[in-house]
Write a structure and sequence with these properties.
alpha/beta; 4 strands; about 10% strand; elongated
Length: about 200
């Protein structure tokens, strides 16, 4: 039975553009039906399109990916998955951005040794970059908060009658439930607003 050629494309989020990877894949002899496109994080391999691809792969098939970080961003799992695909599924993999990672050639001891080293370095770099992205996101959020940027839903302003209702509640003219109903708020919301109101003076 003739071997098949496949392509795997991944971007981390639905709003990211996969066009650069698509352009590279269109230059290769990959049937449209054998192109798998994923819009999901590379932190693990529980991805619907990737799992579907792996089920389709047979011995001596060929898989193209644009770069190693498109396969994933977890160092240990990339190495494990690479060995699973090449040793157990017995397929060939070509990483377009790194010609040394082409399992069709260099199957002798030296070639395997070199590709293993390159794979480990690139896998480490992919995971390291994932960590850097998370750190940059955290730094960006902290910097935005320091500038006064508010995250989450904006708080709704207090109703015009809140001050008087709060006063009547504290002087026990109204129960907590009555005060909340008078302000058209759930009991818990009224109570937390009342605490904030008192703290703000």
């Amino acid at each position: 039975m003739a071997s098949n050629t496949y392509g795997y494309i991944r971007v981390s989020a639905a709003d990211q553009n996969e066009e650069r990877q698509m352009v590279a894949m269109r230059e290769l002899p990959i049937p449209e039906k054998n192109l798998f496109i994923e819009k999901q994080s590379g932190k693990d391999f529980q991805r619907p399109q990737y799992e579907k691809l792996v089920r389709r792969l047979k011995s001596e098939d060929l898989l193209y990916i644009k770069s190693i970080d498109r396969l994933g961003r977890n160092y240990g799992e990339i190495l494990e998955q690479w060995r699973f695909l090449t040793k157990e599924k017995r397929i060939d993999i070509v990483v377009l951005d790194m010609p040394l990672l082409d399992t069709r050639r260099g199957k002798d001891l030296m070639g395997t040794f070199l590709s293993d080293i390159v794979l480990q370095v690139l896998s480490f770099a992919a995971e390291n970059e994932r960590g850097n992205i998370r750190a940059r996101q955290a730094e960006g959020i902290a910097a935005a908060k320091a500038r006064g940027v508010k995250f989450g839903r904006p708080s709704t302003p207090l109703p015009d009658n809140f001050c008087q209702i709060h006063k009547d509640w504290r002087s026990k003219k109204l129960t907590l439930r009555q005060a909340a109903e008078a302000c058209a708020m759930p009991v818990g919301t009224f109570y937390s607003k009342a605490v904030q109101f008192e703290k703000s003076g």
